[in-house]
């Protein structure tokens, strides 16, 4: 295993920071894997709890970045989750990673459009499967054996959210052949700012095979602008509504921007950006408590704490604010969101 790099956790008071220097809350390790079957590099960065509970398996999130990203991105999520006992493996997709921004600047648009093609989407899902294979193998030393096989979660932002959906069962049909990238080892999914499946008229059919609980996060000003690919918040709501599995949650922040969910500090405004990052990281943990522990207390606290930055439905009396349907999980059931409504958890 590569040498561990010890990093500080989220900003804390000075006295607490000194204590954390002695006892880091998480460890970070980089891997440069090669999928020989595809002759494709699959770099990854692992955030691991510094002091996991003795004898207790560690939950794992496998994270897929957006177009033009890398394993170094979305570090606020990896740090936050691992410092609280949930490991996070950030996978880098070499066909749609930060290399798109390098080279002739006049070729950027062409490189972005090429990276958004169907074959790269399929390759990304294969990257996630391969990285999880390696994570659970001797390639990571003793860590793979410590992963809780019942609590492996797929996650991603933007293009990575599409990758996540493919990994947990979303399907498309091409020339009579179903493209199926399902990895049944995942038991839940975190879907942040998912673009539409461009060219697919029947979104419900695309999502019909998603059979795990999903958390969906977006914002009212969550707009994607890539030449040839425009998408607004209505597409995030459409994906949420198209999933038939009864255990799903939707959070919509007020204002914001599509890239505020990355490590960038300014999109959406400095103050809101920082709040949304922390709220998103906390919400994911509350969601995992809900589905794995059947404990909705953290989710209810989250909703109370972050209500000021959540979008409000046009008619709040028309439905409960907690957006979870069906099942025995102790949260009120609600109807699906209409495309013109913004509901908060």
UniProtKB/TrEMBL annotation:
GO BP term, pick one: lipid catabolic process
Cross-referenced InterPro entries: AB_hydrolase_fold
Keyword terms, alphabetized: Hydrolase, Lipid degradation, Lipid metabolism
Highest rank taxon of the organism: Bacteria
Keyword match Glycosyltransferase: no
A Pfam family annotated for this UniProt entry: PAF-AH_p_II
Gene3D superfamilies noted in UniProt: alpha/beta hydrolase
An example Gene Ontology molecular-function term: 1-alkyl-2-acetylglycerophosphocholine esterase activity
Protein name: Putative dienelactone hydrolase
Source organism: Azoarcus indigens
Organism placement in taxonomy: Bacteria, Pseudomonadati, Pseudomonadota, Betaproteobacteria, Rhodocyclales
């Amino acid at each position: 295993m590569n040498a561990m790099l010890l990093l500080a956790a989220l900003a804390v008071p000075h006295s607490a920071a000194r204590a954390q220097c002695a006892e880091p809350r998480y460890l970070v390790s980089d891997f440069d894997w090669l999928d020989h079957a595809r002759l494709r590099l699959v770099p990854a960065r692992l955030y691991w709890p510094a002091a996991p509970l003795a004898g207790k398996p560690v939950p794992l999130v496998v994270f897929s970045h957006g177009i033009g990203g890398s394993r170094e991105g979305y570090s606020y999520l990896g740090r936050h989750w691992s410092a609280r006992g949930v490991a996070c493996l950030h996978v880098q997709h070499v066909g749609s990673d930060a290399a798109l921004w390098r080279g002739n600047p006049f070729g950027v648009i062409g490189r972005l459009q090429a990276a958004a093609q169907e074959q790269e989407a399929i390759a990304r899902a294969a990257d996630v499967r391969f990285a999880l294979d390696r994570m659970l193998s001797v390639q990571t030393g003793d860590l793979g054996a410590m992963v809780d096989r019942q609590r492996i979660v797929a996650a991603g932002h933007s293009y990575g959210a599409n990758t996540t959906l493919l990994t947990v069962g979303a399907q498309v049909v091409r020339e009579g052949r179903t493209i199926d990238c399902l990895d049944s080892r995942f038991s839940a999914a975190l879907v942040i700012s998912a673009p539409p499946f461009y060219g697919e008229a029947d979104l419900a059919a695309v999502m019909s095979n998603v059979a795990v609980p999903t958390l969906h996060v977006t914002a009212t000003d969550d707009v994607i602008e890539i030449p040839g690919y425009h998408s607004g918040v209505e597409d995030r709501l459409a994906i949420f509504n198209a999933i038939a599995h009864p255990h799903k949650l939707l959070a919509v922040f007020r204002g914001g921007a599509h890239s505020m969910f990355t490590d960038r500090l300014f999109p959406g405004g400095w103050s809101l950006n920082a709040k949304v990052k922390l709220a998103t990281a906390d919400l994911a943990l509350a969601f995992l408590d809900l589905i794995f522990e059947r404990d909705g207390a953290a989710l209810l606290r989250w909703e109370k704490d972050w209500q000021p930055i959540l979008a409000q439905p046009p008619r709040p009396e028309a439905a409960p604010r907690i957006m979870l349907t069906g099942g025995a999980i102790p949260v009120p059931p609600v109807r699906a969101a209409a495309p013109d409504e913004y509901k908060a958890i």
